[in-house]
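FW: tagging you since you asked about this chain on Friday. Here's the raw sequence from the shared folder, copied in full. Didn't touch anything.
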Amino acid sequence: MAATSDYVDLAKVGIEAFALLEEHQRQLKHARTRQVLHNHNHNYGYNNGREVTDCNQAAKKYGGLVIVEHRGKKKPAPQPAIFKLY
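HL: got it, structure written out here
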């Protein structure tokens, strides 16, 4: 059987571990709050007056190549031929 001092040491480790976890949770909560408050000023989806360039225009401008794959609907699997033997 373990000595009493082992149980006391284990209890101290447990208390310290939970204190560290609680401190970490508080820091995460505080960081999320600051992040939400900071991001409310951002204008997402706006180009700020700049011209928008699509992939075709960029390819022409920089001498590149655009490869586009068009995939249609999948063709149904062929039905097996049914032969009637008389």
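FW: The longest helix spans residues 4-39.
HL: agreed, and The chain has two helices and no strands.
FW: great, closing this out.
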